[in-house]
Amino acid sequence: MEFFKNISKIKYEGKDSTNPLAFKFYDADKVVAGKPMREHLRFAMSYWHTLTGEGSDPFGTGTMDRPWNELTGMEKSKLRAEVGFELMSKLGIDYFCFHDLDIAPEGNSLKEKQENLDEMVAYIEELMKKTGIKCLWGTTNAFTNSRFMHGASTSPNADVFAYAAAQVKKAMEITMKLGGENYVFWGGREGYETLLNTNTELELDNLGRFLQMAVDYKAKIGFTGQLLIEPKPKEPTKHQYDFDAATVMGFLRKYNLQDHFKLNIEANHATLAMHTFEHELNMSRINGMLGSIDANQGDLLLGWDTDQFPTNIYDATAAMLEVLRNGGIAPGGLNFDSKVRRGSFELEDLFYAYIAGMDTFARGLMIADEMIQEGFFDNFVKERYASYEAGIGKKIVSGEVGFEELEAYALTLEEIKNTSGRQEMLEARFNQYLYK
Ligand code: XUL
Ligand code: CO
């Protein structure tokens, strides 16, 4: 059955096209920096926002007009899958990401949930075969059900820890079955509200134990996907343990897990942590930990996770500079952890949203490539640190000197000369690339 009857495969028509159902910049097979755009960007559909999001908010019920609205149970899950695969095929999106709870109903027991998942995995496998669409990552939802009110692996209740473990075990198995290239841990409710009722030390140790169990089980079943942690500073809890990239990397080192995980950086989580998106990507990259990207954007006037489709080319360019400097993002990709606005309730709005997001990152990729080719910014930075390439700077970097030698050297200095950081000149130059 075809659900988007009036929409055919979205084509690239170039930047002057006025057709809202065409790409202006994303030309999947066009080679940029040595490989096709689709291989740089590895776009993925988020199953949750796209297929299970209803458009409800704290003040109102769902608004989304969806063909499955009247259905329940497995029937609803199957229809969602079919619509999702048609959407991806028509948009030319090669991957999807999912939580276990997105693809199958929870059922009345853990056993029933597992059976529902098995049935839906078989169903989705067929759709994958038919369309050639692949799984970028899977994860578990250990935050919606009320049993997770105090967290999952950081819950004060050991039964909840055990239940969450059973969920991750199954979610990892089905991700493997679907050929998932990564498995994500986003900290759900792993955080706390008040120290008056919280043993943070035990909770963090338990989180470390839980992730070690995941590493062990991954090895046991021979799952070869990359494990990813997705930092977020707040929401739903006041203090999320996986605050930002730096916090997560420190945590992983403390529990000796650093070789088994990389980071899934989400743009709106970065801005909630008062960082730029590119800061989080950069911190991950320079530590060899950049694994994947949840591409969205927040509203800087609001303090919560609005998960909007990304349309800001400035930010996308800065992000793609980091991705290119990382030598790419595979086996990770660029998942649109983004949802249409509550008022954009029609099915075709999903197309406009994905087209906007895909074009934004395609344009960002092209501009970032040009910047790297021309080398203006790289040369500026290299020049700025030139004092470390000779003389005393070289000795500092190579570890040849300590405080005593540096004091002796400093005593010989008559004048210290600095040069301008030229921030405004650089920002103007950045704009010139954007508006070419
Ligand atoms: C929540 C969030 C999640 C993760 C997957 O803020 O970003 O959707 O990406 O659990
Ligand atoms: Co996310």
Describe the protein's architecture and organization.
There is one protein chain. With 436 residues, this protein is an alpha/beta fold. 46% of the residues lie in helices and 12% in strands. The protein contains 16 helices and 14 strands. It has an eight-stranded parallel β-barrel, surrounded by four helices. Helix 11 (313-325) links the parallel strand 13 (290-294) and strand 14. Helix 5 (110-131) runs parallel beside helix 6 (158-177), helix 10 (277-286) runs parallel beside helix 11 and helix 11 crosses helix 12 (349-374). The model has no long low-confidence stretch (mean pLDDT 98). The protein binds D-xylulose (XUL) and cobalt (II) ion. The site of cobalt (II) ion has 5 residues, from loops.
Q: How do the strands and helices of this protein lay out in sequence?
A:
Blueprint lengths: L10 E2 L9 E2 L7 E2 L2 E2 H5 L1 E4 H6 L20 H19 L3 E5 H4 L6 H22 L2 E6 L18 H20 L4 E5 L4 E2 L7 H22 L4 E5 L8 E2 L4 H10 L6 E6 H6 L4 H10 L3 E5 L18 H13 L8 E3 L12 H26 L1 H9 L6 H7 L5 H9 L11 H12 L2
Parallel strand pairs: 1-2, 5-6, 5-14, 6-7, 7-8, 8-10, 10-12, 12-13, 13-14
Antiparallel strand pairs: 3-4, 9-11
Helix pairs in contact: 3-5, 5-6, 6-7, 10-11, 11-12
This protein binds D-xylulose (XUL) and cobalt (II) ion.
Summarize the entry for a quick read.
The protein is α/β, with parallel strands linked by helices and 436 residues long. It has helices at residues 37-41, 47-52, 73-91, 100-103, 110-131, 158-177, 200-221, 245-254, 267-272, 277-286, 313-325, 349-374, 376-384, 391-397, 403-411, 423-434; strands at 11-12, 22-23, 31-32, 35-36, 43-46, 95-99, 134-139, 182-186, 191-192, 226-230, 239-240, 261-266, 290-294, 334-336.
